[in-house]
Design goal:
Helices cover about 45% and strands about 10% of the residues. The chain is an alpha/beta fold. Helix 7 packs across helix 8. The protein is elongated and about 55 Å long. It starts with 6 loop residues before the first strand and ends with a helix. The protein binds 2-phosphoglycolic acid and magnesium ion. The site of 2-phosphoglycolic acid has 13 residues, from helix 3. GO terms for molecular function: metal ion binding; phosphoglycolate phosphatase activity.
């Protein structure tokens, strides 16, 4: 394993970038059009993590309402087109992300994104944030026939980046990411500043980092641990 190329896979929303402001403005525009109450950002941010359709459903449920599947389809199309037009208006990288990605790249790691956003939105956003070029693979919910928490979304992302699961790590912010990594047998580092209804400290990741400056040491420690277990 020591001569295998190491791969590090990142979740996007709530992990690499604080996307909540643009996602929740979009959600609130739709809720307003439907005559529903808008949700404050602080309350709505933790509804993110299972894709835009789930976000819409959860936003409507927070109003004590449900929506017929056919109407949800329409609202979802509308959500996607509004969001595409404001994908990086207020969205910012979390502190230290760009420097951390550069460090892993320079050290020869393969980098990938595994997100429940659509692939074209993910590429559009990562380009707007100036970091798309770092990744060997950017895999969204529609890249494969499977999406998180199905572990194949993660293992196929690792393969698309040219890596192998035995020499891979995942970095994420939610229960979905941690469950996906566990099911794939891939060690997982969690960030506590993303979007999750349950604090990541209660979800059993291998390591929690408070800032991206701590990612290098956390990844090196986990990678060494799994290499030793393998050898
Ligand atoms: O858009 C979402 O709801 C989830 O996206 P993520 O998988 O990058 O957190
Ligand atoms: Mg996330």
């Amino acid at each position: 394993m020591s001569d295998t190329i190491a791969t590090i896979v990142f979740d996007l929303d709530g992990t690499l970038a604080d996307t909540a402001p643009d996602l929740i403005v979009t959600l609130n525009l739709i809720l307003a059009e439907e005559g529903l109450e808008q949700l404050p950002l602080s309350e709505a941010r933790d509804l993110i993590g299972a894709g835009a359709r789930a976000l819409l459903e959860r936003g409507i449920a927070a109003n004590g309402r449900s929506v017929a599947p056919a109407h949800l389809d329409l609202l979802f199309e509308r959500f996607l087109s509004i969001y595409a037009g404001r994908i990086a208006v207020e969205t910012r990288l979390f502190p230290g992300v760009a420097a951390a990605l550069e460090r892993f790249r320079a050290a020869g790691w393969r980098l990938a994104v595994c997100t429940n956003k659509f692939e074209h939105h993910s590429v559009m956003l990562l380009k707007a944030l100036g970091i798309a070029g770092h990744f060997h693979a950017i895999c969204g919910r529609d890249t494969f026939p499977f999406s998180k928490p199905d572990p194949r979304h993660l293992t196929m992302t690792v393969a698309a980046a040219g890596g192998v699961p035995e020499a891979a790590l995942m970095v994420g912010d939610s229960q979905t990411d941690i469950a996906t990594a566990r099911a794939a047998g891939i060690p997982v580092i969690a960030v506590p500043f993303g979007y999750t209804m349950t604090p990541v400290s209660e979800l059993g990741p291998d390591i929690i980092i408070e800032h991206f400056d701590a990612l290098w040491d956390a990844a090196a420690a986990l990678y060494r641990r799994s290499s030793l277990a393998d050898s």
